[in-house]
From TrEMBL:
It comes from the Eukaryota. This is Uncharacterized protein. Residues 1-20 form the signal peptide. Keywords: Signal. Pfam families: DUF1415.
Length: 431
């Protein structure tokens, strides 16, 4: 199972949901500056020490509403009539050129997926639509409000792409969860300000082949994950605790902004939930590669994963999924600050386990940090999604201290950072 390496961290999120998520400082949440690196620069950067870093923190505050019925203030047994009245109210709020998207079928993960999809589509179709009202009568009001809060946090700045505002309120008379999404800038404007557009001619098949090669090399051949025995399936060895072996779903996102990235990610999550964990179409986990984010680990590990975790909380999906961070420049948390869920254990914890379980005890602090980092260094920036029940089952069978010590010694003593960097670069160049 891919995310067993972070099971204890994500398991904490499932059992202790939080509504304040700590992240790296980001005033430019929707976009990022792209820094070009040559092949030699990349190999040098991924093989140098130290392999640990501090993770500065900010937080996204998500409101928690009081328990109430799905339609808050105006629940009615005549739901069809009620929805018709509510739609009329929203249509009366439309501004010139604005449209309404009404979807009475989605809730939970599907609702979160739709909100990111609608916002990303607005950015893509900037010349066609600049404002839209999205109404989700079957969705939870808190989900929609929290999504608005995430967008407001990521758009805090003068160069925001979108603005989102909640329309549901007692004063407006609108009881169905509804949000107005307004376009403030365009991705083309951003690209002009950031060294021009990223050119990526790789196909999704090529990107997935690179990720698959990494899974085979690190997780399978080196045995870094005890529950992944092939590059196509995961969940091995958990049948006795009710977890079936399932397919690893490989995805590629060509997004260059957070809105499109989250649209791709939540679409994949929605598909995984609907497919179920077993059978011919069952999916056990997701590995989604996003190469446009390869050169900015700080942005990826901080704001991107904080917003992703906040979205999981907003969708109330903690009991369904957990997300884990991978990146070609991944660094082990130094333990001086909390990096958030989905990250490698801190360097002090890895050191403690190493001293408890290693026979030689001769690896340096940098060696141990590197051993942690190489377990998370993938060819491209990658989001890993696992089912929560699989994480819980893996947690029940884990032997963290000895396993992490064994992994670190395999990677550092038997292979070494220089060879690991070369192997990773070879995977990045697969065509």
């Amino acid at each position: 199972m891919i995310t067993f390496l972070a099971a204890v961290l994500i398991f904490s999120l499932q059992t202790n949901p939080v509504l304040s998520l700590w992240v790296q400082n980001c005033k430019n949440g929707a976009r990022f500056n792209r820094i070009r690196m040559t092949k030699d620069d990349f190999v040098s950067k991924t093989s140098e020490c130290p392999f640990s870093k501090a993770f500065p923190r900010y937080k996204i505050d998500l409101s928690r509403l009081k328990e109430h019925s799905k339609h808050s203030w105006f629940s009615s047994p005549f739901q069809v009539i009620s929805n018709s009245v509510q739609r009329s109210k929203l249509e009366g709020m439309l501004t010139q050129g604005e449209e309404i998207h009404w979807d009475s079928e989605v809730e939970g993960v599907s609702a979160m997926s739709l909100l990111w999809h609608r916002s990303s589509q607005m950015i893509s179709n900037a010349r066609v639509l600049s404002s839209e009202i999205v109404a989700l009568p079957e969705a939870n009001l808190q989900l929609v409000q929290n999504w608005v809060e995430i967008v407001q946090w990521m758009s805090d700045g003068d160069d925001s792409l979108l603005r989102a505002s909640l329309l549901t309120s007692e004063s407006s008379g609108v009881s169905v969860p509804a949000v107005r999404i307004e376009l403030l800038g365009t991705l083309e404007d951003d690209l002009e300000d950031n060294l021009g557009p990223t050119t990526n001619t790789d196909s999704a098949d090529v990107l997935n082949a690179r990720t698959r090669a990494w899974v085979k090399r690190i997780l399978v051949e080196q045995g870094i994950c005890p529950f992944t025995k092939s590059a196509t399936k995961s969940g091995h060895g958990l049948s006795d605790v009710g977890v079936p072996v399932g397919t690893i779903a490989y995805h590629a996102s060509f997004a260059e902004d957070a809105f499109h990235l989250f649209a791709d990610t939540w679409k994949a999550i929605d598909e995984m939930i609907k497919a179920g964990p077993s059978g011919k179409t069952g999916v056990s986990s997701i590995l989604l590669a996003a190469p446009a984010f390869d050169d900015d680990f700080d942005f990826w590990a901080g704001p991107i994963f904080a917003m992703l975790e906040a979205s999981v909380v907003a969708a109330q999906a903690q009991e369904q999924i957990g997300v884990v961070c991978f990146h070609p420049q991944y660094a082990t948390p130094d333990g001086k600050s909390w990096p958030g869920f989905g990250h490698m254990h801190s360097l002090p914890r890895l050191q403690k386990w190493y001293l408890e379980h290693s026979d030689s005890k001769d690896l340096t602090t940098d060696d141990i940090a590197a051993g942690g980092a190489w377990q998370r260094r993938t060819p491209h920036a990658t989001i890993n999604v696992l089912r929560a029940d699989q994480l819980e089952a893996a947690e029940s069978k884990r032997m963290s201290g000895s396993m992490y010590t064994e992994n670190i010694e395999k990677l550092i003593r038997s292979i070494g950072s220089s060879k690991l960097a070369d192997d990773l670069e070879q995977e990045r160049q697969l065509v």
